[in-house]
Design brief:
four-stranded mixed β-sheet, Phosphoenolpyruvate Carboxykinase, domain 3, alpha+beta
């Protein structure tokens, strides 16, 4: 058993890990001492449930299971997880959702190419979102996808975007009613009525604050320009943007 402390979404967490290698995944989030709000300790069955091929290292399975375990407790502190990538531009956070293979990572690279040092990745796969004093903030997390894109920071969420492939780069605003089911499907819901209800309330609150866009995009830098123009402007009216021909 290995015991270590880390800070996730500004919550101090004590973790009792069965595998000594597990702590390495939390290297950017470790703290020396803590007065933990949350303590995590997994059963064998919780760890084993993460196996897909049966060949994954047990420390990796424990790492995955710790994410679920954290979400099951963190909701009482207004924290939930999104399956998305979040980038920071000029201090504001932009979240992108897309099925695997759609080009989410490619699109983020295009933003970085377009905006240079102004654009930095917060998390590439599973950021946490926390409601604090009337606003929603995105946090980096150790669970960040195969590219391992993550930073231990928090940024206010300014806009959300669903990516689809297209022959032309175009972006439009989505209504809360149209986008809510999809965003909810990209959210981890705790397996209790109270936990699921709390997270669903926060999804509704987030969608009231942050506009959601639908981007049909090519793998070209023009797609990033179209997206950034719309998402950073954030008109209150439903607006479409297209590349010039």
């Amino acid at each position: 058993m290995t015991v270590f402390f880390c800070k996730l979404a500004d919550l101090e967490v004590e973790i009792h890990a069965q595998e000594s290698q597990t702590a390495a995944y939390f290297s950017d989030y470790l703290i020396d001492t803590a007065t933990p709000k949350i303590t995590l300790s997994l059963t064998d069955s919780q760890i084993d449930a993460e196996a897909v091929s049966g060949r994954e290292p047990r420390y990796y399975l424990e790492f995955l299971a710790l994410c679920r375990a954290f979400c099951r407790k963190a909701y009482i502190y207004n924290v939930f997880l999104l399956h998305a990538a979040v980038i920071e531009v000029d201090g504001c956070g932009y979240a992108f959702f897309a099925p695997s293979g759609t080009g989410k990572s490619t699109h983020i690279v295009l933003w970085r190419r377009l905006l240079g040092e102004r654009c930095r990745i917060v998390n590439g796969d599973k950021p946490f979102v926390r409601y604090i004093d009337g606003a929603y903030y995105a946090y980096g997390s150790p669970w960040c996808g195969k590219e391992r894109w993550q930073r231990n920071v928090r940024v206010p969420l300014r806009a959300l975007c669903r990516l689809t492939r297209g022959e032309q780069d175009s972006i439009s605003r989505l209504s809360k009613e149209d986008c809510a089911p999809y965003i909810l499907s990209q959210t981890y819901l705790p397996p209790t009525l109270d936990g699921a209800a709390r997270v669903m309330e926060h999804i509704d609150g987030l969608l009231c604050q942050a506009p959601v866009f639908l981007l049909a995009c090519t793998p070209n830098e023009a797609a990033a320009k179209v997206a950034y123009t719309a998402m950073s402007t954030i008109s209150k009216e439903s607006t479409s943007y297209e590349t010039e021909t």
